[in-house]
Design goal:
- It is a single chain.
- The chain has about 700 residues and is α+β, with helices and mostly antiparallel strands.
- Helices cover about 50% and strands about 10% of the residues.
- It is built from 23 helices and eleven strands.
- Strands 1, 2, 3, 5, 6 and 9 form a six-stranded mixed beta sheet that branches.
- β10 and β11 form a beta hairpin.
- α17 packs antiparallel against α19.
- The relative contact order is 0.11.
């Protein structure tokens, strides 16, 4: 059989790669051992028939949820059979490539109890949860409230006579809503409800609430449970997002998680040592999302890069035209500069996301270690950082997934690209775990406090806010300009970081001055809301700054012989990583150029040389594009893409996939006799 041109094109592209793909893979995933373990876990899933994806495109919601439950139970069995840890479980979820009803059991139910429960509560609930004798979810969002935790309508009223809590949905809109795992699977939930003791509101707290009988799985009396139905874009189709309404449902007092806040038998409330200690679980979920965005966006650009390498359209000469090797063939789409300019920055963003995801998880682990010993010093910064990065990273990752689809032209609209499913899986990340616009207020509030610290006690400013010291001398700061003199100066990380620091400092002080001039009062949300647009700008600016900083530091560490071997890379890989880091930084500046120009920090000539440098870096990455996406190490099972498979045989695979369409099982479609024939014969016979 003659090898297709598609396969030859992708194979030829791999001969041009200037670095060791295996070395780059090890860098991205934290070392060879992690790579091998990830492959082992993915193979466990890929070789199990329960996780076969062939019919996913044709499942309705009811059938999909049943499949999701089957996959969830098999996932639990595999975890126990192979004694896998939580990281392995997360890798299994990545391999499955869909959000399952069981995901929040390990992702939220167990972590919330572990972080907010007493030792006695942990001993009671965690062992059966780890053995899946109970299966839990996390119930915070309500029909009428999501982000505004202080106004949740679900109440927990202390009944002193019986030493119980009475959980109640005080109105129709108090129903818990969108809760993953609640609709069909879970037996328990950690429920956010506002405590009332003798009529006094003590705010939202977390309770372990049994939902369904462990004998017949029926909801307990006093609880109404169901599924909220199909979601947008057919996303999360296997997830049983559910609702729950409580009608004066009683649970023991000890079911309130009391590591920090406590309520005694006598009904005496003890407040936590810090009002934000419960934020640990939110920090975890938001930190995980950053790594997930790295995996999602990298998959999208893998599919797009491979397809654009084998797709040929028109005979337009480019600087990379291969007419000498393939006379008479059309130009590979990936060789068009406009395509490269859209695609390659997203590859760089994917690499930056891998780095940011790792750093953010290290920050979370450090935070939880500190909290376990009573040290809350890092809480405010880590919470603000995770909020800012969650908002920024999920915003551009979702946009990148869709851009990857559009880059593929008409065929990109096919379900068989794998990107449609990917988009449906990523797009809700913009609104769950904190709406991306509302969430930016967290970093803005944090930076306002840092501005006050900078003005009164500059030595106490936290490391990631040190740029605020630049703005203390307003006169000097207003005169500062970018030091770029030659185009190659843009490749200096110090100059790049200086630009981001200047921008962040300016936006932070402008927000602080505006808030002060407006007479902001924390108790008056109206005046604060007037500054929400500015909050969004500074939050995303700060997120971009730390992403550029962390990527720069990761590349620097990769070539440091004293760095742990798992974080090092070979010289050829480092050379490409430096280009990616430069592209990530400079493209981010270019797409936000107004922020750097409006105060005169950049000159018109510098803007022109910046654009030229971005264009130059993009062109320099062309030979390595396929290698850079191969290094993500996403197997074909995970990509589930006819157009982005490892062998590049896109057209044959797309044809084969189309043959699996149920409509094609019959020569004459169902409905011909009922609808088509009567229309054709309505006005008599017509002879061809």
């Amino acid at each position: 059989m003659v090898e297709s041109q598609n396969k030859r094109d992708l194979a030829h592209a791999r001969t041009k790669i200037n670095f060791d793909v295996t070395d780059m893979t090890n860098f991205l995933h934290g070392g060879e051992a992690n790579v091998e373990q990830r492959r082992y876990i993915i193979d466990l899933i890929a070789n199990d028939p329960v996780f076969n994806k062939d019919d996913w495109g044709w499942l309705n919601h009811t059938d999909a949820v049943k499949r999701g439950i089957a996959m969830s139970t098999r996932l639990a069995e595999i975890k126990m059979e192979h004694d896998l840890n939580d990281l392995d479980f997360a890798t299994m979820m990545e391999a499955i490539d869909d959000t399952l009803p069981i995901v929040l059991h390990n992702g939220a139910f167990i972590p919330v109890i572990t972080s907010q429960g007493t030792e006695e509560q942990i001993d009671k609930w965690i062992p059966p949860a780890e053995k899946f004798q109970i299966i839990g979810c996390y119930a915070q969002t309500e029909l009428g409230h999501g982000s505004n935790l202080s106004q949740l309508e679900t109440t927990a009223t202390f009944v002193k006579e019986t030493d119980e809590w009475e959980i109640n949905s005080t109105s129709f809109t108090a129903a818990k809503w969108w809760i993953g795992g609640l609709g069909a699977l879970c037996t328990h939930a950690v429920v956010q409800a506002r405590i009332f003791i003798e009529g006094k509101d003590y705010g939202a707290h977390v309770f372990v609430v049994p939902l369904r009988s462990l004998d017949d799985h029926k909801p307990f009396p006093g609880i109404e449970i169901g599924d909220i139905g199909p979601k947008a874009y057919n996303g999360f189709n296997k997830m049983d997002n559910g609702f729950a309404r409580f009608n004066k449902y009683r649970i023991p007092r000890e079911n309130m998680l009391m590591r920090f806040s406590k309520v005694s038998r006598e009904g005496v409330y003890t407040k936590p040592p810090h009002s934000k200690l419960a934020y640990g679980s939110m920090v975890l979920l938001r930190s995980v999302l950053i790594k997930q965005m790295a995996l999602y966006l990298s998959r999208a650009v893998t599919v797009s890069t491979r397809y654009l390498t084998v797709r040929r359209q028109f005979n337009n000469p480019t600087s990379r035209n291969d007419s000498d090797l393939n006379p008479g063939l059309e130009t590979q789409v990936i060789n068009y500069p406009m395509v490269q300019n859209r695609l390659f920055p997203m590859i760089a963003q994917s690499y930056a996301l891998f780095v940011a995801g790792s750093v953010m998880m290290e920050m979370y682990i450090g935070l939880m270690t500190g909290l376990s010993s009573g040290n809350i010093g890092a809480l405010a910064e880590v919470h603000a950082m995770s909020s800012a990065l969650k908002s920024y990273c999920t915003t551009f990752a979702v946009a990148g997934v869709e851009e990857s689809r559009k880059l593929m032209g008409g065929h990109g609209f096919s379900y068989f690209t794998g990107i449609a499913h990917l988009f449906a899986s990523t797009v809700p990340s913009n609104t769950y775990e904190g709406d991306n616009y509302v969430l930016t207020q967290q970093m803005a509030r944090y930076l306002l406090k840092e501005v006050k610290t900078a003005r009164t006690n500059p030595d106490q400013v936290t490391p990631y806010s040190k740029y605020l010291l630049l703005g203390l001398n307003k006169s000097a700061f207003s005169r500062s300009t970018c030091s770029v003199a030659l185009p190659e100066d843009w490749l200096n990380p110090a100059i790049q970081l200086a630009a981001f620091e200047h921008r962040c400092a300016r936006l932070a002080y402008e927000l602080a001055d505006a808030v002060e001039q407006g007479g902001f009062d924390a108790a008056n949300p109206k005046t604060w809301s007037d500054h929400n647009i500015e909050c969004y700008r500074i939050s995303h600016a700060h997120a971009q700054y730390v992403m550029v900083l962390w990527f720069t530091q990761a590349v620097r560490d990769a070539k440091n012989p004293e760095t742990d071997v798992e974080r090092r890379a070979e010289p050829a890989s480092i050379k490409v990583l430096e280009r990616l880091s430069n592209l990530h930084a400079l493209h981010t500046i270019q797409t936000n150029l107004a922020d750097f120009v409006e105060d005169g920090y950049f000159s018109p000539a510098q803007c022109q040389s910046l654009r030229a440098q971005v264009k130059s870096i993009v062109a320099s990455l062309a030979d390595d594009a396929v290698g850079l996406v191969d290094a993500f190490d996403h197997p074909d099972f995970l990509l589930n893409s006819a157009l982005g498979a490892t062998d590049g045989d896109a057209y044959q695979r797309l044809w084969d996939k189309a043959q699996s369409e149920p409509l094609n099982r019959r020569q004459v479609c169902d409905g011909y006799e009922e609808y088509i024939r009567p229309l054709l014969k309505k006005h008599g016979e017509f002879k061809l």
